[in-house]
Design a protein that fits this description.
By secondary structure, the chain is α/β, with parallel strands linked by helices. It has a domain at 2-179 and 225-251 and 294-308: NAD(P)-binding Rossmann-like Domain (Rossmann fold, 3-Layer(aba) Sandwich), CATH 3.40.50.720. Helix content is 36%, strand content 16%. It has a seven-stranded parallel sheet with strand order 3-2-1-4-5-6-11, with helices on both faces. A two-stranded parallel ribbon has the order 7-10. Strands 8-13 form a two-stranded parallel sheet. Helix 4 links the parallel strand 4 (77-82) and strand 5 (118-124). The longest helix is centred in the first third of the chain and has 21 residues, at 94-114. The radius of gyration is 19 Å and the shape is globular.
């Protein structure tokens, strides 16, 4: 991590799920000169910060004001890890998404590039829509059709950066289905593992959506589930590789079914498997991804060689070391964990 150690690191969304995991991973590499920016509001995500080491904190609105003023408070930043955004896939306020996921990112990226600062930002696998056009990070962006406004807000910045000849000077990370510690505050956007853990404790069963497409049996819809510890390790690898530029899928490259994920939760809890299938809400049916699987050739070409944590092992680590003791990354349960 020599390049990141050479200067301060700005992590936006640094109290959130992936953002706080990045701060944790930086700390484990000896990097503590970290400026965290976020909207803390009235959520409980501040708890993600308590075990972590960082040098300064800013509310996201204040950060943008300092960027626009080119404030001395931002001197010394060599890397920006921009995870801050509205991550709700069901958010319907398009203007809100444009302001937070497109305009904010444009201003921050423009500021960073003008100063030679490495800029890595969170795009999303939601940009691929239903996957009918594939899920290659080398695809023509004009061919992609996101299914919701969240995905389109991410697509807007990817396309803007490419149109303005900037994309290869940035790193856009297309996260697939990330799960793991520090997601408690995300409400309905929490992973199935987090929701299922509480369902099993309360009812002994896990509820999954029925399939509304004949080619998929109930619970056999497939997603590329990637453990957050792997996702942040991949992200920091790209941040450290000066030759990396453009869009990169961050996933395992291997899809698994919701049934497999549910069975892994039962195994981690040593409980009998009991799955109940419920109707998918009408509002979601036309916007639901039935299959996602990252193509990871570009990530490999950027020098990433570590295999992803197997799904059963990742779920076991998450459930036993974090959900059961109600722990966060950095609380001590992860001392032997890779990142």
């Amino acid at each position: 991590m020599q390049g990141i150690r050479a200067g301060r690191v700005l992590v936006t969304g640094g109290a959130g799920f992936i953002g706080s995991a990045l701060v944790w991973a930086l700390n484990r590499r000896g990097v503590e000169d970290v400026l965290v920016a976020d909207f803390l509001g009235d959520s409980e995500k501040w708890r993600n910060l308590t075990p972590l080491s960082y040098s300064d904190y800013l509310e996201a609105d204040d950060l943008l004001a300092l960027v626009e003023a080119d404030s001395g408070r931002l001197r010394g930043i060599s890397t920006v890890l921009h995870m801050g955004a509205c991550s709700s896939t069901t958010e319907r306020d398009a203007s809100y998404l444009v302001r937070n996921n497109f305009e904010y990112t444009k201003k921050l990226a423009t500021w960073a590039l003008a100063r030679g600062i490495r800029f890595v930002y969170a795009s999303s696998a939601a940009t691929y829509g239903d996957g009918a056009r594939g899920m290659s990070d080398e695809a023509d962006l004009q061919t992609l059709r996101p299914l919701n406004m969240y995905g389109y807000s991410k697509q807007m910045f990817d396309a803007w950066a490419r149109t303005h000849g900037l994309l290869e000077r940035l790193v856009g990370v297309k996260y697939f289905n990330v799960f793991g510690p520090n997601e408690d505050h995300k409400g309905d956007m929490r992973s199935l593992v987090q929701k299922a853990y509480h369902q099993v404790l309360e009812t002994g069963a896990i509820r999954l959506f029925k399939s509304h497409r004949p080619e998929f049996q109930d619970g056999e819809q497939r997603r590329d589930f990637v453990y957050v510890k792997d996702a942040v390790a991949m992200t920091l690898h790209l941040a450290e590789n000066p030759q990396a530029g453009g869009l990169y899928n961050v996933g395992t490259g291997q899809a698994a079914t919701w049934n497999e994920l549910a069975r892994a939760v039962f195994a981690a809890l040593e409980r009998p498997v009991r799955i109940e299938y419920v109707d998918m809400p009408e509002a979601l049916r036309g916007k639901y991804q039935y299959f996602t699987q990252a193509t990871v050739a570009r990530l490999a070409s950027a020098g990433w060689t570590r295999p992803a944590t197997p799904l059963v092992a990742a779920v076991k680590d998450y459930v036993r070391n974090y959900l059961v003791p109600d722990a966060r990354l950095g609380d001590g349960a992860d001392e032997g964990s890779a990142a």
